[in-house]
Amino acid sequence: MRNIAALLLVLLFAPTVCFAGSYSVVSNNSQASELSKDDLRKIFLGEKSFWPDGERIVVVMLKGKKQHKTDFLKEVVKVSDCKFDQHWKAKLFSGLGYPPQTFKSSTALVNFMENNTNTIGLVPAETDSELQVIFSGEGPSAKSKQPMKQALISDL
User: Does residue 156 surpass a pLDDT of 90?
Assistant: First the structure.
């Protein structure tokens, strides 16, 4: 019984190696490599809907509230999760746009993107794919965990 309690305490307080707030914006469209941070903001808010060649941009992200999404929206799009959702509900209701397509898993999102060249997506930084990383960042939640990760690696 003591061993189980000790194990639970270790698991509860052990630092994670994965940065929950680290994110990457990925695409398999060659035109995406020239996007600025402001372009990304406009794309994720639906203010920029077409690639330079005239093809519609399809924005994708994971379903639900995720730390990497919260950090990306705060740092790049400059809105909260709640404001982002409200923004898209208003655009959808008024007929001015469609919100980003959402997926239950990173695997499903990446598979969709690999088969559709006009996509741009937000994924956790640790997502494994062959897609081009356009922009990446570490949100405040990831930055606050960084010293713990470095200490964990140096202890090996």
Answer: no
Instruction: Answer yes or no: is pLDDT of 66 > 60.
Output: yes
Residue 61's identity, in one-letter code, is M
User: Mean pLDDT of all residues in the chain?
Assistant: 82
Count CB atoms within 10 A of the CB of residue 21. Answer: 24
Nearest 5°: the CA angle 137, 16, 69 is 35
142: how many CB neighbours lie within 10 A of its CB?
A: 20
Catalogue all structural domains in the chain, each as residue range(s) with its CATH number: 21-154 (3.40.190.10)
Tell me what pLDDT residue 33 has.
86
Radius of gyration for the alpha carbons in the chain, expressed in angstroms and rounded: 18
Sheet holding 119-124, edge to edge: 101-103, 58-62, 119-124, 22-27, 132-138
Q: Once rounded to an integer, what is the mean pLDDT over residues 42-47? A: 97
| DSSP strands (E only) in 2-148 | 22-27, 58-62, 101-103, 119-124, 132-138
